[in-house]
Amino acid sequence: MNRIIILLFCCFTLAACSPKEDSKEVKKSNQNYTMDTHSFAKPTESRIVHLDWEAELDFDKKIISGKASYLIESAKAAKEIVFDTRGLTIHKVSIQANESEELPAEFKLGEPNPHLGVPLIVNINRDVKKVNIYYTTSPDAAALQWLSAEQTAGKKQAFLFTQSQAILARSWVPTQDSPGIRFTYKAEVKAPKDMMVLMSAENPQEKSNTGIYKFEMKQAIPAYLLALSAGDLEFKSLGARSGVYAEPSMLEASAYEFAELEAMIDAAEALYGPYAWERYDLLVLPPSFPFGGMENPRLTFATPTIIAGDRSLTALVAHELAHSWSGNLVTNATWDDFWLNEGFTVYFERRIMESLYGKEYAAMLEVLGYQDLQHTLEDLSSSPEDTKLKLSLEGRDPDDGMTDIAYEKGYFFLRNLEEIVGRDKFDSFLKEYFQSNAFDVMTTEEFVVYLNEKLLNDEALQAQADIDAWIYGPGLPETNQSPRASRFEKVEEMLSAFLNEGALDTGMSANWSTHEWLHFLRKLPRELQPEQMKALDELCGFTSSGNSEILAAWFQLSIRNSYAPADAALDSFLVNVGRRKFLRPTYKALKENGKLEMAREIYARARPNYHSVSTNSMDELLGWN
Ligand code: BES
Ligand code: ZN
Q1: Does residue 19 register a pLDDT over 50?
Q2: Active site residue 407
Q3: What is the pLDDT of residues 483-507, one digit of tens each?
Q4: pLDDT over 50 (residue 584)
Q5: Residue tagged active-site, from 73, 247, 295, 320
Q6: Does 294 sit in the ligand 1 pocket, CB within 6 Å?
Q7: What is the band of 21 on the pLDDT scale with cuts at 50, 70, 90?
Q8: pTM of the predicted model as reported, rounded to 2 decimal places
Q9: Is 275 an active-site residue?
Q10: Which of 221, 476, 571, 591 could serve as a FRET partner for 328 with CA atoms 20 to 30 Å apart?
Q11: What CA–CA distance (Å, rounded) separates 166 from 443?
Q12: Is the C-beta atom of 581 inside 6 A of ligand 1?
């Protein structure tokens, strides 16, 4: 079914203005809202523009008690404002027409929806400027992971972090949880005394002695970029406008790993214009963080599994940094347009890596990405709809659409455009795209119009670019060429020597990066002889590798070939690491190779360490209830 995009051009009058006020003071804003099927909010009627959040973190009960005060703008005739909530207990709602007087508001909770949660509908009239919501979260709030002290690296203090993307912000703050609705925020958070609290905002660099922290985010952001973390954290500066937060025992290793951060920011700016968010810091989370990274503005959240000791997995940082333009500045209007966030970001990430480490290096990332894409296309062969860049996720969990298609097909589409028009033209185009759409939303359809107007302004170019096939068609257009990386030629040589003659000359691999090893492991046949597995492990030391990417790729082979010497490492990896990208293929390999019982036994012990984002996917895979 074709989704109907409603572009509504609406005028808002500031609700507070009385009729006799000078018309110049009547603030008008023209903003178009695309219908977002994953939010109950009706922004064309009433919307939030600023949040003042007061909250207290209760680690014993695993709840946040909060007051969310919103400044709102509404159409003259608006009778209500609708918020998204999920699992929240709403104690009280009040409305204000001015600063001094707070009146009780009439409100109700609407029909619950399994993916979307529950709408909170608050009655308003044209005088209402502010809405205050007093609430508590539930102990199983989907965005939150509360870790006990034992689950942290230092084992001294408990830990909390949020993951709001895609639609989980509503489980810890009542909000209008749609990527097209932006607001600024201030916050005051109270935590146990010895903790440091951080948000996607201006952050402290030292612990306070009261446990109370104040935050401000001056640039307007959508709710999926709201973020919070608290625990035994310390800060170390990495440059004039960058630094890293981590648990004390992880701080030195983190600072070493991310030493090139400032250079990355410079490279990014040189490509596509000034960094708009002032500071860029990293927060290294405990290993249960379900993603590799999350681009929370001013403070990227990152998995510790990228700390390999040799700076070989920092493309992830380039990726999250790139989101400061693609995603955080120019934001996908709905989750159906997710590729506008991720495809652009992968393209930008690889350009940053190319600036820092050269073309050959970036080519390896591109080839590995292409391999991921081929796997995803195979996995999705029975649902070709999900292999289009423009998705239709109505009625589904947006998480279902967040596959490598958006990332890698999106990347190859942009790479293809670069090839057609040449790099100089493409770079100017992207720079202008970020500049002229900053702090705004973008739909796929608007992007196509923009692209045709600014870059592909003649029919021959348009025909060559084949936009329809790329964006609205399934799979990869046949014209797409598979990428090559010269550094992988050596890898393939060593591989054939091993497979044909049983030779493993580790002198050849002495200087390999993680990427070369990944290519090697991925290219090995799925079935190997026990002696081959043994030789590989003895000479290359896979089972004892401290590199999460290499381990995860090795477990694919050890599981398929029932290589028992890797079982203990596999067990400890699954129990300690909660990053979904590793869990899914590893548990899947166990399941597909007659080891479902083993998978379930490990899962029973590991599950308490995982965030809900990961358990949701794994419960389904392993038939857990
Ligand atoms: N924004 C994503 C993470 C995300 C996507 C969270 C969808 C929730 C829903 C982040 O920028 C990302 O893409 N992370 C990747 C790393 C990247 C190098 C591909 C990840 O976590 O693996
Ligand atoms: Zn991303």
Answers
A1: no
A2: yes
A3: 999 999 999 999 999 999 999 999 9
A4: yes
A5: 320
A6: yes
A7: very low
A8: 0.95
A9: no
A10: 476
A11: 16
A12: yes
